[in-house]
Amino acid sequence: MISSLLIANRGEIACRIIRTARAMGIRTIAIYSDADAKALHVRQADEAVHIGPSPARQSYLAGEKIIAAALATGAEAIHPGYGFLSENADFAQAVMDAGLIWVGATPRSIRAMGLKDAAKSLMQAAGVPVTPGYLGEDQSSERLKAEADLIGYPLLIKAIAGGGGKGMRRVDEPADFLDALTSCKREAEASFSDDRVLIEKYILSPRHIEVQVFGDAHGNIVHLFERDCSLQRRHQKVIEEAPAPGVTEFTRTAICDIAVRAARAVNYVGAGTVEFIADGSAGYIKPDSIWFMEMNTRLQVEHPVTEEITGQDLVEWQLRVASGERLPKRQDELSINGHAVEARLYAEDPATGFLPSTGRLEHFSLVKNWNERVETGVEPGDAISPFYDPMIAKLIGTGVDRDAAIESLGGLCRSVEVWPVRTNAGFLARLLDEEAFRAGNITTGYIAEHVDALATKPPPTLLRAAAEELIGPVVQAVAKDLRGFRMNGAPITNGNFVLDGEERTLSLSQPGEDAFFGHIKDGDALVFFESGEAYRLALPQERGAGGESTASGAILAPMPGRIIAVEVSEGQAVVKGQKLLTLEAMKMEHTLTAPFDGIVSELLAEVGAQVQVEALLVRIEPVGGGEA
After folding, report:
1. Which residues does the annotation mark as catalytic?
2. CATH code: domain of residue 561
3. Model confidence at 234, in pLDDT bands (50, 70, 90)?
4. Which of 180, 186, 333, 339 gets the most CB atoms within 10 Å of its CB?
5. Res. 177 pLDDT band, cuts 50 70 90
6. Is residue 518 within 8 Å of residue 460, measured between CB atoms?
7. Between β-strands 4-7 and 77-79, what pairing exists: parallel, antiparallel or unpaired?
8. Beta carbons of 271 and 185 less than 8 angstroms apart
9. 267 and 357 belong to one structural domain
10. Omega of the bond prior to 420 within 30 degrees of 0, cis?
11. In a 3-state reduction of DSSP, which class is residue 287?
């Protein structure tokens, strides 16, 4: 068995690996960048090594530095987690060439499955069904456009080296193809240093079904059943569950057998996931409506739901297989017990188009019950860095059946309290309550089709109680502004407050002595929490964070990033919704648009410029000089 392990990753997955390794008696070594010097995974490991500056390319993607750190600390093996270098065949080979154990798929398997076009060709040869599309080497815009027209619309453009939803665009009309291709290639180059793409037919009622597979060096391969990952936003998974709804035992056997066949085609060793697109138009999945998409040659973010329904520790399996042992279980020893659902809690603001929200977690709390699981890489007081993925935690609910698991996860999401960083907790809670999701009748396009309603922050039901709590300690100071207040409990008429920047007038009772809801103080303001949402309530003289916003025509950088495209010029007339510029941050492209019809009166953005959060980029003057 491996005796010492360097974890070439950060955040929740590093903490997750440390937990299992420690239980197995394995010494753990963490690596960290400047931004992660005080991170939770660093604090939890037996030893930690500084690996470089904050940008990932100079730290977590610096393979030579990581191998040197492993050798210097006496590590016997390297576990890459997911993301970063986990599917980099050259790094895996370099680890092995240095005399270290690589906890992952073989370089040969990684290469075979790492490029989507080559993987599809390999799967076709192995008799695995694949979606129709173009996998050719001619990457000229003219050839790609011609192939797209032959395939028909809608279709997907996908980076052949892509993953995590990056370098992927859906195109519905021929006129939109070239713009989408340019954007897709640019993002693919930035994320994977490879701008090549493939094109595939878009299935109109798509379900995303994937199968967890595991192999050892002795030729044994098993599956640990399927997961459903259909609830996605911009091709990134939001909710995952196991087993998949609408999958009969007959279909389960068929799809899992296909996944094992795919793994055998590359003599697979370690943890892997075979991903399929399925036609869900019938309301359930049929064996003949499933097509191979790709294989991820690593542990997946959503592996906890598989662990929960099988009772297996997949990280332990990885470490045992890497140590040369046989798989801990045979196929006939594996079974499904209950149901599990996972949600990804992100530091992002649904109200601003899900833009990442970075900063310190001054307040971070949730209520976890016995049948719930939380995987996180942060604690209260830690920071969400602009340099990496803004995940705060993975929240997992379990139950004897699907309804019980959903109820469990919903309660966990509603209990989330985070401030001042914004989160998607309320969005997740509303998504879990959707009738279509409860019925198991959703596709990968569901969130996009309902995003406006799902992302809208509802009015708080606790507003009156929060207002009474706010004015209790300062009632004497504001009594002159709250006419009608009497200490015997008579109403306070026309009390003025500022809720999330908007002025509100309330009639209040006597301030309560006790508060029976979650809240904290933020200066002179009060922040209260309800159903996963955070609401900031202040008195009129304290209107919260000021500054300019799109209401004034000032377009500010929503986060630190790099300007990669400017679409307008100073003095140009623009219409509401028109693209102004594109900001690249956290490996994703974010488009900023005009908030109303007007004229570009000021343009401070330049292509290639690095900008800080809330930097003024563009100013739009309303047409005619009136109010927006």
Report:
1. 298
2. 2.40.50.100
3. confident
4. 339
5. very high
6. no
7. parallel
8. no
9. no
10. yes
11. helix
The model's pTM is 0.80
Residue pair 134/151 in contact (Cβ under 8 Å)? The answer is: yes
Quickly state the pLDDT bin for 586 (edges 50, 70, 90). Answer: low
- Looking at the structure of the chain, the number of domains it has is 6
Instruction: Look up the CATH number of the domain holding residue 173.
Output: 3.30.1490.20
Boundary residue ending a domain (538, 568, 602)? 538
Give mean pLDDT, residues 447-470: 91
The answer to whether residue 121 sits within a structural domain is: no
Q: What is the rounded distance in angstroms from the CA atom of residue 43 to the CA atom of residue 62?
A: 22
- Which domain covers residue 526, as residue numbers? 463-538
What residues form DSSP beta bridges with 134? 199
Tens of pLDDT, residue by residue over 406-426, are: 999 999 999 999 999 999 999
In a domain, 161, yes or no: yes
> What's the whole-number average pLDDT of the chain?
89
Q: Are residues 221 and 310 in the same domain?
A: yes
Could you report the per-residue pLDDT of 134-174, keeping only the tens digit for each? 888 899 999 999 999 999 999 999 998 877 678 889 999 99
- In this structure, what are the phi and psi dihedrals at residue 204, rounded to the nearest 5 degrees? -70, -30
Q: Give the three-state DSSP class for 293.
A: strand
Same domain, 313 and 248: yes
Q: Could you tell me if residue 115 is inside a domain? A: no
- Helix (H) or strand (E) holding 475, with range, is helix 475-478
Measured distance CA(233)–CA(218) in Å, rounded: 39
At 117, list the tokens.
């076009």
- Two tokens, residue 573: 């007339």
pLDDT in tens, 385-404: 888 999 999 999 999 999 99
